[in-house]
Specification:
By secondary structure, the protein is mostly helical. The chain contains 21 helices and no strands. The longest helix has 30 residues. The termini are far apart. InterPro entries: CND3 (IPR027165). This is Nuclear condensin complex subunit 3 C-terminal domain-containing protein.
Amino acid sequence: AVNKMTLASILTRMKDIKDAVRKEAYVVISRFLIRQFTIKQRQLILECGLGDRSDISQNFVIEVLVPKWLKYFNNNYYEFLECIHVEKIPETGLKLLKALFTRQHGVILESNLKDMWIVNQKIVYEKLNVATAVFWRAMAEFVRPTDEDDKLEHIFEQVLPDLTPFCKYIREYYFPEEASDELPEEKEPQNGEDSPNTSRPGEETQQKNTTTHVPDETVLIQLLEMCKVYDLSDEMGRSSLQQLCVDLLQSDRVTLQSVVVLASLLDHIIPDVNTKLNVMAEIITDLREPLQALDSSVYVPNLLLLEAEEKKKELMEKITELTTEMEIAEELGDCERIEEIKVANASLKKELTIMNTVSPNEPGRMVNNDPDTLKKCLTIVVEIIKTGKITKMDPTLYSLNENFIIPTLNLKDEEPGQIVTNLTLRVLSSFCVLDAELAKEYFFF
């Protein structure tokens, strides 16, 4: 007989090597009520079942086990998601919901929107939490129209607004202090006039979100992932999304988990490689060398500093040209020319290194080398580089290497930590893959 004593043994069978054994384990598990399992056991069952390599086992979980658990809550998605503590397993929750949606008719899907407080293409902030955000994202991704299938497009139009207002929605959610500053002062109601705070039936969700709320990082990630369902044909919307990503990356509150999503999103919305790298470099500069308050309201840069920056730019362009010439010379097998280019390249890089060492820091900026800032900056570079869209070094990357990567690797007085060191080496090795000369310089033994 199955009881709590033998249940632990049954759960281990979900990872058995035989498909039939795993299927039978899920059959036995389905006889139990969801409340009879601990939270960790519920999460384990869903993670193993939805990710099972056997279609037979996976289909049983999707078609029998999960619907039975949902029925226990009278098909209330919110209570179901809360019961499995979806905030701990958001990706599993996403997969779970999409599996359930495939078994439902469009009319039923549409009726679920109001049950999860999705009204007028948004969820009011008081109701926005991980459970509702995961459901919202799952619904948006599931009903998103494609070239092959657009039969649920009418539902998609009820789920998400245009990109520009959605970016504003995310901004006001994560930066509520900005939204409160923009709220206009309410006028006193005159005799015979309705109070502005009095809402008619059905108009509650049309009012502004003025209730104070605490932003949640997991909710933010779900909202950002939802931005990927847009086709980005709207120029204004794409510009709003880019600015939102930049502002979030520059925020002190954003964690590394969100940085990964933001960098990926930034790569998605900026197709041009040069523009993407320039935006990345600007973000890193603002994070690592934030502008300090100055006595003068207008700062006029020193002429010598501008000349030095121009000289650096010229040197980096020459290095790029020599790299191209080196590739051509190697293809032609011109050994004499290769040696000449190596000497010239080494000389230019040495000159650039000296300029970076002795040139004064820009007034009003202070270099920030604390571990959290370094990890954020390095994570941005790693996520942008690993997309595979960058195929060669350019002046922006050379400058980033000389002014940020190498100095970070050479930090001795401060202890940035092993994570920072590992990230720095990962970025440097990526650069060396793009430029063989860098590999010879830094990894030649």
